[in-house]
Design a protein that fits this description.
Elements (H helix, E strand, L loop, with lengths): L17 H6 L1 E4 L5 H11 L6 H9 L3 E7 L2 E11 L2 E9 L8 H15 L4 E7 L3 H10 L2 E11 L5 E10 L1
Parallel strand pairs: 4-5
Antiparallel strand pairs: 1-2, 2-3, 3-4, 5-7, 6-7
């Protein structure tokens, strides 16, 4: 939700069962899992991260976590640690699994991980036009701090503003 402009999203599907919610696992993303990450990234965004971007982030030891239901990657997030803060770089739920609460579950995990790492703040940027993500973040407790002008690439050599948001942990 933070990396790119979302493609048209499908209608929300049925909520996961309690058994599914209890069966999901959050695991560190490995280089061998980048094909699964790229399959989601390329279907979820009009301006997806490149494989090199993900690989470089892994090599830099950023937090890279995937939410798995068996062998199915439901979504993932990438975050960078800073001094008393964590910066969410990318959080994405597979389009077929959006609207089921998995993004909220990953935000919960990131919040706990951030607190455990000693972070006082969680930061992110999101496209100004990504109203769905903005609503998710606001409901979660993030507050708008500022606008970064012309931050994201857009269509036809245009640029789009980013909304900078933070959450006090």
């Amino acid at each position: 939700m933070t990396a790119s402009h979302p493609r048209t999203q499908p209608a929300a599907t049925a909520r996961p069962t309690e058994a599914e919610r209890n069966a999901v696992m959050l695991r560190s993303i490995t280089p061998e899992q980048l094909d699964a990450v790229m399959a989601i990234e390329q279907t979820a965004y009009s301006h997806p991260w490149s494989r090199g971007h993900f690989r470089d982030s892994l090599n830099s030891q950023f937090e890279a976590q995937g939410l798995w239901l068996g062998d199915e990657l439901l979504g993932y997030f990438w975050a960078m640690r800073g001094f008393e803060e964590m910066h969410l770089l990318n959080i994405t739920v597979a389009p077929a699994r959006q609207g089921q609460g998995w993004g909220h579950m990953m935000l919960d995990a990131l919040t706990l991980m951030s607190r455990h790492a000693g972070a006082q703040w969680l930061w992110l940027e999101v496209r100004q036009s990504n109203l769905r993500a903005l609503q998710v973040y606001e409901r979660y407790g993030f507050r708008q701090i500022s606008i970064r002008k012309d931050y994201y690439p857009a269509d036809r050599q245009q640029r789009e503003h980013a909304v900078v948001m933070s959450l006090k942990l």
